[in-house]
Design goal:
By secondary structure, the chain is α/β, with parallel strands linked by helices. The protein is built from 12 helices and 10 strands. It has an 8-stranded parallel barrel, surrounded by 7 helices. Strands 9-10 form a two-stranded antiparallel sheet.
């Protein structure tokens, strides 16, 4: 049986400087809560937000949700202190922004040397410079804590001077390359945020595009986006029924040792069996969260 992946369908950013938002996050059905010290926090509030994020993690109450803290970049005046504080916070992960090269990952790894071995390093993929080095950056997962990427399409659009449309056409090559590099090196990968939080039909279409491209889930900016995101990135009843049929068919004695069989009138190979087992495992993990 393939080891089940942890569900990360929805990853909600919450400003660490907002105590009410943090308290609300403890009851929201997002798979991941990201306490943000970077974009959502004004410069004069950075130190206070850092202390609040660490205190919130230590206080607990987030249940089965993964809790990450997004630091400021190491090239800022707050980055080093952020990583030092997060290393001792007990958070599941630290999310670092604007990674552009393997050297950036190595620098963050060094800054986290005092953190527990269980703490993960997550990275934002949001610069023009990183697009040509995605495979090299992903390869650092072999020797560092790196385990997950989150796309930062807004920042990428700014650097590229590209228009961010509903179709996201200018960014599709980068999204595809990021998914390929992440899969090649065993890294989870989440799609970027959708800026539209009032029109959930627009959000759903973008989430479905992310699913089509192979993302594990999507990062969010508003609690109203959680429910449609979880629905999009959860296996459907039809998909689970098909997966169950494939698993059952390969388990039949007459199909023992076969590399390809017919299931419901379609060809199914061992790669489809692997996909079916992963889908069922994900569904089981999602059910365990509820």
């Amino acid at each position: 049986m393939i080891a089940p992946d942890r569900p990360r369908r929805s990853a909600l950013y919450m400003p660490a400087s907002n105590a009410r938002a943090i308290e609300k996050a403890r009851s929201l059905p997002a798979d991941v809560i990201i306490l943000d010290l970077e974009d959502a926090v004004a410069p004069e509030a950075k130190a206070e937000a850092r202390a609040a994020a660490v205190a919130a993690v230590k206080a607990g109450g987030f249940g089965a949700r993964e809790v990450a803290i997004r630091a400021n970049g190491l090239d800022t005046e707050w980055g080093a202190e952020d990583l030092a504080a997060i290393a001792a916070s007990g958070a599941d992960a630290v999310l670092v922004p604007k990674v552009s090269s393997p050297a950036d990952i190595e620098a963050c790894e060094s800054a986290l040397r005092s953190a527990p071995a269980s703490m993960q390093l997550w990275a934002m993929i949001e610069t023009c410079a990183v697009v040509g080095q995605l495979d090299a950056v992903a390869a650092t997962a072999r020797s560092t804590r790196l385990s997950l990427w989150i796309m930062g399409v807004n920042d990428l659009a700014k650097e590229m001077r590209a228009k961010l449309t509903a179709e996201r056409t200018p960014f599709l090559p980068a999204l595809t390359l990021a998914v390929c590099a992440a899969r090649a090196h065993g890294i989870a990968v989440l799609d970027g945020v959708c800026n539209e939080f009032r029109d959930l039909d627009v959000f759903r279409r973008e989430a479905e595009q992310g699913l089509l491209y192979g993302f594990d889930g999507k990062s969010l900016i508003h609690p109203d986006q959680i429910a449609p995101c979880n629905e999009v990135f959860s296996p459907s009843e039809a998909e689970l029924a098909q997966a169950g049929a494939i698993i059952a068919a390969f388990a039949l004695p007459e199909n023992a040792g076969k590399g390809a069989i017919r299931v419901d009138g379609k060809m199914a190979e061992l790669l489809h069996l692997d996909q079916a087992k992963r889908l069922v495992a994900i569904a089981e993990r999602i059910a365990a969260l509820s």
